[in-house]
Recover the amino acids of this structure.
């Protein structure tokens, strides 16, 4: 079984790169200013993105290695760790994205953020949702693989 | 295969009843006052709980029927609908719970909610997290059943 999207294929590599790019973008939009430090939700987002970025970069490197050099080795133990890790990180990303979106909404309604800052927060929330979606897709693809191992 | 937690067993009935109770409690904590109407995150929570309550009550009734009267009929089509529905509702509950929690946090920090109201919002968020957790458990149990059908 080697359909696209599974661990070790080029589609999976693309998913991982997408996750890394979107989560880095989210972190940058949030951190170009130090004001995020005063809101719990934004600190949560920064923490989670700090976990997602190394995770997706590592898996992207391993995917790239198996795409370009050899067939991937899919041991059930390793696959379980990857599926559970993706799973937990996708839940955490969703929680961070929705917290950020709702706090930004409150800040906009109460006119308590400076010009351009609120739109950066909005962009950050949107990009985090994209990263959540890609991470969920990776997780579902690999979950499908588990019973066949 | 008839292990506990799967569709049509008493453990599944207990999970469904727990979901219904927690989501009703969350709705009540939020709606005893009409002030929730001014925050997008709280409106979102009320909408999602309005979807989760009838869904879990219906499935609890169907579970009770198969527990007390006959063995459950597990057709792949019906099971897929149940798994996907649980899935989507669990993501939506998580998003609603984390939005509510972060908005409540902001309100408490800025001292902009009246006495006792903030603690009600906090309770509502906590109970929504519990409902999300039970709904995720149901969904995982039933997902495990799918490949064997």
């Amino acid at each position: 079984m080697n359909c696209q999207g599974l661990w070790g294929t080029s589609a999976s590599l693309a998913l991982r790169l997408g996750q890394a790019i979107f989560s880095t973008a989210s972190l940058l939009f949030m951190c170009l200013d130090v004001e995020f430090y005063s809101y719990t939700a934004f600190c949560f987002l920064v923490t989670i993105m700090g976990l997602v970025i190394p995770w997706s970069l590592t898996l992207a490197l391993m995917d790239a290695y198996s795409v370009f050099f050899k067939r991937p080795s899919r041991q059930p133990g390793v696959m379980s760790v990857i599926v559970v890790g993706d799973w937990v990180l996708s839940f955490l990303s969703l929680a961070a994205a929705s917290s950020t979106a709702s706090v930004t909404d409150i800040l906009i309604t109460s006119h308590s953020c400076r010009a351009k800052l609120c739109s950066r927060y909005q962009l950050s929330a949107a990009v985090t949702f994209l990263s959540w979606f890609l991470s969920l897709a990776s997780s579902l693809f690999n979950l499908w693989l588990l019973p066949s191992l």
Remarks:
- The helical segments of chain A are 10-31, 40-68, 76-109, 117-145.
- The CA atoms of residues 101 and 125 of chain A lie 5 Å apart.
- Chain A touches chain B at residues 39-41, 44, 91, 94-103, 105-106, 109, 147 (CB under 8 Å).
- Residues 10-66+84-148 of chain A form one domain.
